Fold these 3 entries.
Entry 1:
Amino acid sequence: DAKTTQPNSMESNEEEPVHLPCNHSTISGTDYIHWYRQLPSQGPEYVIHGLTSNVNNRMASLAIAEDRKSSTLILHRATLRDAAVYYCILREAGSARQLTFGSGTQLTVLP
Amino acid sequence: GAGVSQTPSNKVTEKGKYVELRCDPISGHTALYWYRQSLGQGPEFLIYFQGTGAADDSGLPNDRFFAVRPEGSVSTLKIQRTERGDSAVYLCASSRLGLAGQETQYFGPGTRLLVL
C-alpha cells in the first residue's frame, strides 16, 4: 500500500469542526482512502472511506482533492468522545487485505 | 449484534512461557486478522485467515508465533517461549469478504500481553 503522511497531533475545541489532513502523493488510481480511529484502550474503529468523490456518513465527511494526492477527514462538531488517534490508510483493490497503519494523528479535544 | 471479542483482556506471563490468545469474530465474517500494537505505534499486521486457512502469514515475526482457526470461526494466536519483546496489545479483526479496497474491518478490544 502507498504511504500516507499525517501530522502527529492536533487540537480542537469542543463543538467546533475539525479538519484532519492526510497527504498521499504516491496514490495510485485504484487506491481507496480509508480512515480508522482508535479511542484510548480500544481497538481501531472504521470511520469512512472513499475513492474519488467526497463522502459523508453519520460519523464524518471525507473530502478528497481533485488530484487525489491529499484528503481531509472532517468532524463537523467535535465532542470529547472524538479524542482518539486517527489513521489515514490507502488500500488497493486486489492487493493484500490487511491494513497498513502509520502512526496517525492524535486528536485532543479541549472542553 | 455482538462485536469481535478477545480473551483474556490482560495476560501476564513469565519469559519462556507459552501463551494462547483467543479471538471470537463477528458471526458470518469469513476473514479474520491478527495485529500487534506496541506502545505509541500503529497496529502491525501478523496473519490473515480466509475461512480455516491462513491466506497470508507474512507478518508473523518468527516461528515462535502460530495461529489457527480450525472451524473457520474462533481463532487462537499461540506464542511459544515468550520474550519480553513480545509484550504488546494483540488485536483481532474480522470482516466479510468483499472487494479488498473497500472491505471494512471490525476490531476487538485487544489482549494486553505483558511478559516479565
Entry 2:
Amino acid sequence: EPEVTQTPSHQVTQMGQEVILRCVPISNHLYFYWYRQILGQKVEFLVSFYNNEISEKSEIFDDQFSVERPDGSNFTLKIRSTKLEDSAMYFCASSDGVWGGGNEKLFFGSGTQLSVL
Amino acid sequence: RKEVEQDPGPFNVPEGATVAFNCTYSNSASQSFFWYRQDCRKEPKLLMSVYSSGNEDGRFTAQLNRASQYISLLIRDSKLSDSATYLCVVTNNNAGNMLTFGGGTRLMVKP
C-alpha cells in the first residue's frame, strides 16, 4: 500500500526556535493535511491544503504556523517560534479528494514527535 | 459539549469476547463517519466507514443513528491483536474534509 512519509521521526528543539516538519504525501493525492496529538489527548486538525493554498485551518493554526509545498513532492509545516505547548506528535495526511459515499480515506504518516524544551 | 464524545475506557475483555463501543457527536451537519484504530504512539488507521444502513467487515460491525447522533462499533470474537484505541471520527464534507476525532476508547484483550 502507498505510504505517506514523514521526517524526522523525532525532533527536539529549544523554546523559541523555528522547526520545519517534512512530509512526502502519496504521489497522486491532491489534498494534504496536518494534524497533531498532544500526549494523552485527541487527534486535532490543524490545516488542510489544496491547489497550493490553505483550504481550512483550525484555531490552533495561528500566525506561528505555516505550510508550504515547495516542490512537487514535499509538504512542510513550519513553526516559527516554538512554545512548550507545541510539544506533540504531528501527523501529515493526504487523500485523493474523492469524498462522499463513504469511500473517503485519509492516509496518515507515522508522525513526527516534537519535543520543545 | 465535546464535538465527538467517547468513553475512554479501558475496556478489558478476554479473548473471544464481544465488545461494543459507542460514540456521540454534536454537529448535526456531520456527513461522513468513521472508526479509526490507533496503536500506542502510532498513526491513526482507518478501520471502517460507517453507513446509515449499518455495515459489517468481518468481525467488525458499525452502526449509525443520525436521529440520535450516535455511532457504534461492535467487535466479535476479540483477538489479542485487537488491543488498541478506537477513534470515532466525523466530518462535515463542506468543511474541507476536516476530520473531527473523538478522544478514543481503549481496548485491552487479555489471553
Entry 3:
Amino acid sequence: NAGVTQTPKFQVLKTGQSMTLQCAQDMNHNSMYWYRQDPGMGLRLIYYSASEGTTDKGEVPNGYNVSRLNKREFSLRLESAAPSQTSVYFCASSGAGNHEQYFGPGTRLTVT
Amino acid sequence: GENVEQHPSTLSVQEGDSAVIKCTYSDSASNYFPWYKQELGKRPQLIIDIRSNVGEKKDQRIAVTLNKTAKHFSLHITETQPEDSAVYFCAASTSGTYKYIFGTGTRLKVLA
C-alpha cells in the first residue's frame, strides 16, 4: 500500500515551458486535491476533485489545469510556466465520510 | 470565503515545556479542524483533529480545544521533545466540501 505517490520529485523548467505533475493513490479514495506550498503562506488549494469525473477550482487556480483521469489518478498541468509558479506541489486524497487528507511526498518545481 | 489565521509564526520552547499554537477562522459553517505536522522536507501528516460537536480532544501529549462561539481553536503540546520540532498547520473545513483552508503555519523549535 503506497498511499499517495507523485512524480516527478524535482523539476526545473524554463519560463514558457509546459509540464504535467502526476499523482496517484491506492486507497480507493473519492476525493483528490492539488496544493502549492510557498514559504510563509501555508498550503493553498489549486484544484480539487470531489469524485471521479468532477473537478473544481480552489483558492489559486490561475495558470493551472487538472484532469481526473480515473479514480486513482489526478494530474496537474502547467501550460506555460512562470517564475511565480516556483513552489512545492502536494497532491492529497481523502475518502468518503472521513475528512482526513493524506498527502503525497511533493514535487519541488523551479521555473527560471 | 473561509479565512484561517494562525499564530505565532515561530515558537521556541525549552524541552519539557508546553507549546500552544492558536488559530482563528471566519466561516461559522466550518465544522472540522485538523492539525498537520510537517517535518523538514517531508509531507504534512495529520496529528489530531476535532469536530465542531466536541470542545476538546486529547491524544497522549497533544490536545486540541475548540471555541465555536469565538471561532478559534488551539493546539497544545505538553512535555515537548526535540522530535516535536517541525512546522504545524491548522486548517478548517466544512462538511460536504472536504476542502481545507490552511493557516500559514507555525515553526516550532524545541531546544534541548
